[in-house]
Write a structure and sequence with these properties.
The structure holds 2 protein chains of 2 kinds. Chain A is α/β, with parallel strands linked by helices. Chain A has helices at residues 43-50, 70-73, 92-102, 107-120, 136-148, 166-181, 193-199, 217-223, 265-273, 288-296, and strands at residues 3-13, 18-28, 32-36, 58-63, 66-67, 77-80, 154-158, 185-189, 202-207, 210-216, 228-233, 245-251, 254-259, 278-284. In chain B, the strands form 2 sheets. Chain B has a 4-stranded mixed sheet with strand order 2-1-3-4, with no helix packed on it. Chain B is elongated and about 95 Å long. The two termini of chain B are 21 Å apart. The chains are: A alpha/beta, B alpha/beta.
Chain lengths: 311, 444
């Protein structure tokens, strides 16, 4: 598959910090791509460059095989920023129509699509309501609709599930899968790692303006595995000592072991098979959450936005 | 371009379709009328009836002191300052004996506070009575004098202005009125609609609409669309006010009797003179209406109106983009807006002061310069134009003023666009003028 978006050595420096410092990656067509990073890592700046709001200081963006042209390509992108914004006094139908027209749809086209989406997400009765009358979750749904209405090739969602109840979150999640299946590419930016594991095919982790991780979810997990396994035994032997592994944790009949370098799972199994019967044995892969914390913790990321307290 | 027109439409219709817009448009002139009428009624109501007991040592005022509407002078016996209230008088007026023309004080005592109008009326009546007495002593009576005064009004001042070959009548009062009125209107527009632009931008920023918007349109388009849309709202409002005024004036003419109107028309035909031997003699009302119409017709309306529209739009555009820039850097706190607005409101208020001097004296150096510099030209030039082009304002000054205003608003819009672009996506940080300056003059 070809890539829809390719970033080459993107840089964006502000007066006080390097918000994006030499980042390159590419996103495949039809994939769901996770852009991760702690607060202030430069995600928003990166997304704003992709959406054409900011120009990079250097580097290039290749969109759909051609250098990115903010004027033309803006209609092929749908961007839902983290901070939602809608005109409070405007009626919901008019608002959706307005935003769709600004994305280049004709009035009739826009109308048709709005009706389709409103029906699909059970929002038909909202047409004449004002945004200020909506709950947070409802306006979130509206914002989602306005983002995908013009059938963009690239959909950028910044924390799309915040403020949604599980029911509505599932509804939106299904829509995201549906959009990807129909050929759209989704960039998904969030802090919620369990959502990333569930949804994303490929992830990139940025920290302090640099890319520190790039790969598919399974690749990344393999890369960061610590050779830990969990074993469930019928009876736990009183004494466990082997040069093949170390016991990290023990809970009733369940052991978590870490296999030493040069040894394999067979060595562990052999050791226990001689003493008792094994009920289950499986590898423990690190969760993205753990990988995230592991990589980001200890860097200046959590503190870099602030100056030192002076005495 | 297409996107700008979509934005303009939204900005325009979201305001015009609002019920509040219709209400303020219709109510503002009505409120004005009600306010003036109310003030008049109140000032009339303020006068209450006075029954004045006059103690006259001269024995002369009785019969010569004329009563006014709500003031009755009476000359009772046995009334003094102690008992006038109990005898049913509201005031007591004590006039001492006059010694030739030596200065003398007469005293009015009252339980109530006396309004300035009443006070003036009483002193006028007394002076008139004294005047009558003196006239009588000189052998002239009041009715003779009145008729002389009336007849002597045949001569009237007419000011003519030399304009190359043609000579035109002019009226300083009219010029003053037009100059001040249009300057005032432009002043109000800048504040009302400028602030509207600022609030609109702040709304977009604080509700975080800006980021959604600028992912579809360029920030400059967004700003320009808003400015033009709101400007169109302003024009619509003025247009409706003009219609309303014309409507009211036509309605007012219905109350004038057709006889008077036909006299006015005759006066207009014969340039203010009723032809001798004519059947009709113009009444006082017709004379007045004619003179108002005649005065109004003296102004060079096509020039004034087209200049007004130009300076109205130019001045609005010049300042609106600055207001937009301020709106874009304000965070949630409206107090920030106040302090950031200050450098913009200062020149507007300053221009207003220069304008109110320029309408009295349109040829001073400061008025001339202020009418060319775009910060103040919309108001000050309007004040001067009312005195005549090219009489007071030479063509080169008008051209320089217009060109510099066009250049000025292009410049402010361009600079504001750059501040706006950065400011609208900047949250949580208090932005200083220094930073705004940096954004404005940054390349790219």
């Amino acid at each position: 598959m070809s890539s829809i978006l390719q970033l080459n050595n993107l840089k964006k420096h502000y007066a006080t910090q390097k918000a994006v410092d030499d980042i390159s990656f590419s996103i495949e067509k039809g994939s769901i791509f996770g852009l991760l990073g702690p607060n202030g890592a430069g995600k928003t700046t990166l997304l704003r460059m992709i959406t054409g709001i900011f120009f990079p200081d250097s580097g290039e963006i290749i969109f759909d095989g051609k250098p990115y042209n903010a004027l033309e390509d803006v209609t092929k992108i749908g961007y839902m920023p983290e901070e939602r914004g809608l005109y409070k006094k405007m009626k919901i139908g008019e608002q959706a129509l307005y935003l769709a027209q600004l994305k280049g749809l004709s009035k009739a086209e826009a109308m048709e699509k709005i009706k389709f989406w409103f029906k699909r997400l059970e929002m038909e009765s909202w047409w004449n309501k004002k945004v200020e009358d909506l709950s947070k979750g409802m306006s979130q749904k509206l914002q989602f609709v306005t983002t995908v209405l013009h059938e963009p090739k690239l959909i950028i969602l910044d924390e799309p599930f915040s403020g949604l109840d599980p029911l509505n979150a599932n509804l939106i999640k299904d829509e995201i899968f549906g959009l990807a299946q129909r050929g759209a590419t989704v960039i998904f930016s969030t802090h919620r790692m369990e959502q990333v594991e569930e949804i994303c095919d490929h992830i990139v982790l940025v920290n302090l303006g640099k890319k520190i991780l790039d790969g598919s979810v399974t690749e990344v997990k393999q890369q960061f595995k610590e050779n830990k396994f969990s074993i469930r035994l019928k009876e736990v032997p009183a004494q466990i000592s082997s040069d093949a592994f170390e016991v990290v944790e023990q809970k009733n009949q369940e052991l978590i072991v870490k296999i030493n370098e040069g040894k394999g799972s067979n060595d562990v199994l052999q050791y226990f098979i001689q003493q008792t019967s094994i009920e289950s044995f499986n590898e423990i892969l690190p969760s993205l959450n753990e990988i995230f914390i592991d990589l980001v913790e200890g860097t200046a990321a959590t503190t870099r936005a602030f100056q030192n307290v002076s005495n | 371009m297409n996107k700008i027109s979509i934005i303009i439409k939204r900005e325009y219709f979201s305001r015009v379709k609002n019920r509040r817009f219709l209400l303020t448009t219709i109510l503002t002139p009505l409120l004005f009328v009600v306010f003036i009428a109310g003030a008049t009624i109140l000032s009339l109501k303020g006068k209450d009836n006075h029954k004045v007991a006059v103690i006259d040592q001269n024995g002369f005022f009785k019969g010569n002191l004329k009563n006014a509407n709500d003031i009755n002078f009476e000359f009772p016996e046995g009334v003094d300052t102690l008992n006038y209230l109990s005898k049913g008088y509201t005031d007591i007026l004590i006039i001492p004996k006059f010694e030739g023309t030596e200065k003398v004080n007469y005293v009015l005592r009252s339980k109530k506070r006396i309004g300035i109008g009443t006070e003036e009326l009483i002193s006028n009546r007394i002076n008139q009575a004294i005047e009558d007495k003196m006239l009588q002593d000189a052998g002239i009576n009041r009715s003779q004098l009145d008729s002389i005064k009336e007849k002597s009004k045949f001569a009237e001042l007419k000011v003519l202005e030399d304009k190359g070959e043609t000579v035109q009548e002019s009226s300083a009062g009219l010029s003053y009125g037009i100059g001040f009125g249009s300057g005032m209107l432009i002043y109000l527009t800048m504040f009302i609609y400028g602030a509207m632009v600022m609030r609109g931008v702040m709304e977009e920023k604080t509700n975080r609409i800006a980021e959604v918007m600028v992912s579809s349109v360029k920030p400059f388009e967004l700003m320009l669309g808003k400015i033009i849309g709101i400007g169109a709202v302003g024009l619509t409002q003025f247009f409706m006010w003009i219609l309303l005024i014309f409507g009211l004036m036509t309605a007012a003419q219905l109350f004038i009797s057709p006889e008077v109107m036909s006299q006015v028309n005759t006066l207009q035909q014969y340039n203010g003179q009723i032809p001798s031997g004519g059947m009709v003699r113009a009444g006082e009302a017709a004379q007045k209406i004619y003179s108002i119409k005649h005065t109004i017709s003296m102004a060079n309306w096509p020039v004034i109106i087209s200049c007004f529209i130009f300076y109205f739009i130019g001045g609005y555009l010049f300042y609106a983009s600055l207001f937009a820039a301020v709106g874009s850097v304000v965070n949630e706190d409206p107090q920030d807006a106040q302090s950031l607005m200050f450098p913009i409101t200062m020149p507007i208020i300053f221009s207003f002061i220069i304008m109110s001097n320029a309408v009295q004296d349109p040829n001073t150096g400061i008025a001339t310069w202020a009418s060319i510099i775009p910060f103040s030209s919309p108001m000050v030039m309007m004040a001067r134009i009312a005195y005549g082009v090219p009489g007071t304002v030479p063509y080169w000054q008008l051209a320089a003023s217009m060109l510099s205003l066009i250049g000025g608003f292009l410049l402010t819009t361009w600079l504001s666009g750059k501040i706006y672009r950065t400011g609208i996506l900047m949250y949580g940080k208090k932005i200083t003028w220094k930073e705004m300056g940096k954004w404005a003059f940054r390349k790219g």
